[in-house]
Amino acid sequence: MKTVLHILRISGKRRCVSAHLAAGIIAVLFLAPEARGQAEITVTGLWSLTLDNTNLQAGAGSDFVSTYESAVDQVDIEISGRRFEYWQVDISITGGASWHDDLVLYARRTGDGQGAGWISGGTAYQEVTTTSGPFFQGYKKLKDITIQYQLSGVSVVIPAGTYSTSVVYTVTDL
Fold this sequence. Notes:
single chain
């Protein structure tokens, strides 16, 4: 029996959101001051976990270890863009037919990144659900923000197969 869990398919994804974009456009059209920019996020990384009989707790007839962790730097995030200051990163998963309801994914920030800005929050594991929620926030450009994942709920009662989900990171100007 072999179960393959392709946990994350995020390599090269970019998501940009700005709560202040409409206000910035209005300011350009009517007041013509310096336009406010937009933060951008670049996420790189993939976690693929393959489970077989070597992952059983005590050999044949026993259960899998229920929790697995990725490397502490499994995913790398960069916040860039022009003329932005404070930002927040939200996180969610896509869920869907290729993800089993008993599997629970957690994420935490393991690195502060490099650059002229600062970062806070997100250092404790938090459950990642299909509802987007705050993960961490910061100021100015940063690169090499590292993320670690934890997967729980793994069990032999979950049918053998391939289970996958995508983790969606969204950056918002504050």
